[in-house]
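Hi, does anyone understand the following?
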Amino acid sequence: MAEDSGQEKTESPTAKKRSDARKDGSVAKTVEVNSVFVLLTAIFLLRVMGAGMLRDINDFIKHCFELTAITDMSDLRLMEIAGESIAFLIKIILPFAAAIMVAGIVANIIQVGFMFTTKPLMPKFSKINPLKGLKQKFSLTTVVEAVKSILKVIIIGYVAYVSVKGEYELLVMLADTSVMAIWNFITEATFNIFVRIALVLLAIALLDFSYKRYEHEKKLKMTKQEIKDESKQMEGSPEVKGRIRSLQREMARRRMMGEVPKATVVVTNPTHIAIALLYESEKNDAPVVVAKGKQLIAQQIKKIAAEHGVPMVEDKPLARAMYDKIEVGFPIPAEFFTAVAEIMAYVFKLKNKSAA
C-alpha cells in the first residue's frame, strides 16, 4: 500500500505491527551480545575452575600411564580405558557446555525477552531465489556487517598487541625461572588479554545492538495509509459498524416495545411523544420509564398500549419534560413525583371503577 501511494514511512509502528513482527521472529538482536556473554562466562569459569581442572587432567593422565605400565593391554582393557577417558572428558566439558548454553539463553532473553516462534524455520521459496540472494549479498546491511567485522578484527588485534607488548619485559626475564613460573605467567597474561578483549567486545556489542534497534525501528515504520488500513481492519469498516449499530438499536427497540404491555400508564403529548411508566410498589419507590419515543415510535407505543388495555393520559408539559430528562430503565426524579402521582391516582381510580 505504501509503495502504491508513494507515501513515506514516517509514523511509529503500532502495537499490532510490533506484535506481528515479533510473531514472525523479526526482532532487534545481535550475535555480538551472545558472543560476549559466552566469552565472559568461559573466562570466569577458567578463572575459578582452571587450576582444579588442570590438576584433574594431570592426575587422569598419570592414571592412564600407570594403567598402561602395569596392565597387559588387551582389547577389553583398552576399551575400559577409552570408556574412562570419555567419561572424564564429559565430566570436564559438561559444566562449560551447560554454562555457555545458559549464557546464550540469557543473552537472547536480555535482548528480546521470552519469545518462542517457529515461523523463521518454515521453508520459503523466496529464500532460494538466486536474484534475491545476490541482492542481499550486495545490500547495505552486508556492507555494514563486513565493515564491522574488519573493524572488530583490527581493534581486537590492537588490544592483544598492546597487552603482549606491556608484558614483554617480564617475558624476557622468564628465561631463568622454573617451568611452573613460566606456566603461571602465561596463564595470567592470557587471562588479562582475554579480559581486555572481552571488554572491547562488550563495547562493540552495545554499539551494534543500538544500531540493530535503530534499524529494526526504521524497518517497522508505517505510512499514514497503513495506519488507517490497520485501524479499519481492527475496528471494521464504517458501513459494517453502522449496520451493527442499526441492528443494536432495532434489538433495543424491540425489547422496549416488549415492556409496554406491562406498563401502568402511558403519558402522551398526545401525538408526538409517548412515555410508558411502570410502578411496582414492592420493587421500586418511584415509577420507572420502560419505553419512550417520538413520532412513529410514539404511535407504536400507543398502539401496543391500546391493544393490551394500558391506560393513556394526555399531559403535554409532563411528556416533553420527562422525555428530555429520563432515559429508559431509570426511575423518575423527584421533580416529577407530584405530577406523576396525580396521574397514578387517576389511573388507579379508573381501575377501581372498572373492577367495581
In short: The CA atoms of residues 2 and 225 lie 7 Å apart. The chain has a mean pLDDT of 79. Residues 179-220 form the longest helix (42 residues).
